[in-house]
Amino acid sequence: MATKRTIVILDLFDKNYTTEISCSLDYKTPWQLLFATILSAQCTDERVNIVTKELFKKFPTVEAFAEADLEEMELYIKSTGFYHNKAKNIIASAKIIIEKYNGKIPMTLEELTVLPGVGRKTANVVRGNIYQIPSIVVDTHVKRISYRLGFTKENDPVKIEFDLMKTIPKEHWILYNIQIITFGREICTARSPKCEICFLNKLCKARKNK
């Protein structure tokens, strides 16, 4: 159950940032979001959006991805980093999606995390944005800021996810992900956070411990 302090923090996020469900990755179909999220591992969303603009033209369907030449796929996604594994995983996932799910992206964590290259983070991005299933996505911003706010003491993403599921009201899970990304980029940066202008500076446990 959320504490009064948690509710105040979430209210401040709502007042300062969007309350609309949105995604910083560009996509038009569920499978495009899945593949874009796989590419986003250890890469910025901005870079992924540049890459997928051409990638989705070259491979316009799941079938095209499943039949893609590995080396050609690697060339298209090379700038996202770890491109050998990403290319291999995307092609393998595309084949499974066609063979096992008739070209549709599954919605359960169990089904999604069986796909090569898909962990809980990627699965939760898809579940939250495509199926509007309340999900916590633990990226670098969520991990850092949740720790600073005292919502978790863990370092493991899965443990952080479960801590946040207990702390944050379910109806705010998806929004928390979206708002924290903006907050992490604009104010609560990894280095030199702008505590002096932060609207949470009186509520932040990391600030009090300085």
Structure commentary:
The chain folds into 2 domains: 4-20 and 136-208, Orthogonal Bundle (Endonuclease Iii, domain 2); 30-130, Hypothetical protein, domain 2 (Endonuclease III, domain 1, Orthogonal Bundle), CATH 1.10.340. The chain has helices at 4-16, 30-39, 45-58, 62-66, 70-77, 83-101, 109-112, 120-130, 140-148, 157-167, 173-186, 205-208. The mean pLDDT is 95. With 210 residues, the protein is mainly alpha-helical. α2 packs across α3 (45-58), α2 (30-39) packs antiparallel against α8 (120-130) and α5 (70-77) packs across α6 (83-101). It is elongated and about 55 Å long.
Briefly, what is this?
This protein has two domains: 4-20 and 136-208, Helix-hairpin-Helix base-excision DNA repair enzymes (C-terminal) (Endonuclease Iii, domain 2, Orthogonal Bundle); 30-130, Endonuclease III, domain 1, CATH 1.10.340.
Distance between the termini: 28 Å
How would you name the oligomeric state of the polypeptide chains in this document? single chain
Structural classification: mainly alpha
CATH homologous superfamily identity of the largest domain: Hypothetical protein, domain 2
Note the run of SSEs as H and E.
HHHHHHHHHHHH
Radius of gyration: 18 Å
- The averaged pLDDT comes out at 95
Integer tally of domains: 2
Determine the strand fraction and express it as a percent band.
Answer: under 5%
CATH architecture of the largest domain: Orthogonal Bundle
Task: Indicate the CATH topology of the largest domain.
Answer: Endonuclease III, domain 1
Which stretches are poorly predicted, pLDDT < 50 over at least 5 residues?
none
The CATH class of the largest domain, by name, is: Mainly Alpha
